[in-house]
Design a protein that fits this description.
Layout (H helix, E strand, L loop, with lengths): L2 E6 L3 H16 L3 E2 L8 E6 L4 H16 L8 E6 H6 L2 H5 L5 E3 L7 H15 L11 E3 L21 E5 L1 E2 L10 H5 L3 E2 L2 H13 L4 E5 L18 H10 L6 E5 L8 H9 L6 E3 L7 H6 L6 H14 L4 E8 L6 H14 L3 E6 L17 H24 L5 E9 L6 E6 L4 E5 L8 E10 L2 E6 L3
């Protein structure tokens, strides 16, 4: 039985796409392996959001292709965003590479690789191959978004990602995603509902809906009774018996309306956490980023969601050191962090991205200033986040028990509805269940607790 190794770089969307590819190989009679010596097919799912991610994938594949191959017939392939932007040129970088497939072709990867492997096994190759098959598929495919629907057999996991749309039509000046993931394409609601029902039947309790700009799901569909297609989808999924929790990522202020804010008042399964990228607190910088809204709109959305769901945890992404960012602009970002009191924030130092508008902008900020602002903002974010976590000590929380703690297998780990990790004593709750827990301690970003019997 041949085996396949799939290594994934990048976001949750990539994780989900890799799972789709893996499930097709399994259905084709392959086994999944993490052993590079054992694999007959080796695939890397790539990310192009930053240069570093691309260099990492190129470096890894270069090493794999250069090693003395115990199995000269091995099929080497790249998938995903880097393929969409670099395509054929990747064969110049790594001559032994066989397959390059873009973001519309995940559902074709198994057929392409299996055909190639079978032909090589038929030829009884014994000598190492110097040049790969150089098969490149990066074109458009009608309905490709509907192909990301299969899941690996449940390995005791009570959570799952569900891809509901692909692509992004925003034009943020620093971002390469619109060119690698293409236009926004939504899946039919019925397909998503069926997929979630099947997951629940297999023991999944929590589902996270994925999309580059998830609240624009079904944007071409009419608003019905004041509700967008996205909110109607949330309602339909909410009605599925056995589904305990619903999450989604990542939303954008554009297309984020009152109906979605209201959903937090009447959909209790909708978790009390939203990851809502802010990027900058300065309107001048948002304009340079080509994010077409005023920061006050973003801040008001956060505050109205907190009014709708008082215990809502809000996390965000922030870029510091964007070209032209003055100290005043930076102070506006810091003030926004103080105003919203984020539960956490991922802070990125701006790094120029090939083929983006921002990379060609004047007034690029020097590394020293980027690091200073990064460090200063991190202190603020950590102070606020720790205070918000400390405030949970002594409270009762419901956690979805996910499995053994990553740092101590004698303990169990779960997550609150606010997506905060909680460690409890081992054997005090069942994995895959929602357990009532009293929070007894907090160490910054990790909570500790004990299961309450009442
Ligand atoms: S919203 Fe902006 S940052 Fe997000 S994926 Fe789209 S273009 Fe990129």
């Amino acid at each position: 039985m041949p085996s396949v190794l799939i290594k994934t770089y990048g976001c949750q969307m990539n994780e989900r796409d890799s799972e789709q590819v893996a499930s097709m190989f399994l259905a084709g009679g392959y086994t999944l392996t993490q052993d590079e010596k054992e694999a007959d097919v080796i695939l890397i799912n790539t990310c192009a959001v930053r240069e570093k991610a691309e260099l990492k994938a190129l470096g890894k594949m270069g090493l794999l292709c250069a090693r003395p191959a115990a199995k000269p017939w091995v099929v080497y392939g790249f998938m995903g965003c880097m393929c969409q932007s670099r395509a054929q040129s990747l064969f110049r970088d790594i001559e032994r590479l066989d397959v390059v497939t873009g973001t519309r072709h995940y559902h074709n990867v198994y057929a392409i690789c299996n055909r190639l492997l079978r032909s090589r096994l038929g030829m009884n190759i014994t000598e190492p191959l110097r040049r790969g098959a150089h098969i490149c598929e990066v074109g458009e495919v009608e309905g490709f978004q509907n192909e990301i629907r299969d899941h690996l057999p449940p390995a005791g996991s009570c959570t799952a990602f569900v891809s509901i749309m692909q692509g992004c039509e925003m034009r943020c000046s620093y971002c390469i995603v619109p060119s690698t993931r293409g236009a926004e394409c939504s899946r039919p609601a019925q397909d998503i509902i069926r997929e979630v029902r099947e997951l629940v039947d297999r023991g999944v309790k929590e589902v996270t809906l994925l999309g580059q700009i998830v609240n624009r799901y079904g944007k071409d569909e009419p608003v019905v009774d004041g509700k967008s297609a996205f909110v109607r989808l949330l309602e339909s999924l909410h009605d599925i018996d056995g589904l305990e929790r619903l999450r989604f990522t990542s939303p954008h202020p554009i297309g984020f309306r009152e109906d979605l804010v209201n959903a937090y008042t009447y959909l209790p399964k909708l978790c009390s956490h939203i990851h809502f990228p802010m990027q900058s607190g300065s309107d001048r910088i948002l304009q340079l980023m080509r994010r077409p809204y005023k920061n006050e709109k973003y801040l008001r959305l956060c505050e109205s969601m907190r009014e709708a769901r008082p215990d809502l945890a809000i996390t965000t992404d922030i870029i510091v050191g964007f070209p032209g960012e003055t100290d005043e602009d930076y102070q506006e970002t810091k003030a926004a962090v103080e105003r919203i009191q984020f539960d956490n924030a991922f802070i990125f130092q701006y790094s120029p991205r090939r083929d983006t508008v921002a990379a060609a902008m004047n007034n690029q900020i020097c590394l020293r200033v980027k690091e200073e602002r990064n460090h200063d903002l991190l202190e603020t974010v950590n102070r606020i986040a720790t205070a918000r976590n400390m405030a949970l000590v002594g409270t009762e929380q419901s956690i979805l028990v996910e499995g053994p703690s990553k740092t101590n297998p004698d303990r169990l780990q779960g997550r609150t509805s606010q997506n905060k990790p909680v460690i409890i004593p081992g054997g005090t709750a069942q994995v895959g269940t929602i357990a009532p827990v009293r929070i007894t301690e907090c160490t910054g970003f990790t909570l500790y607790g004990e299961v309450t019997t009442d």
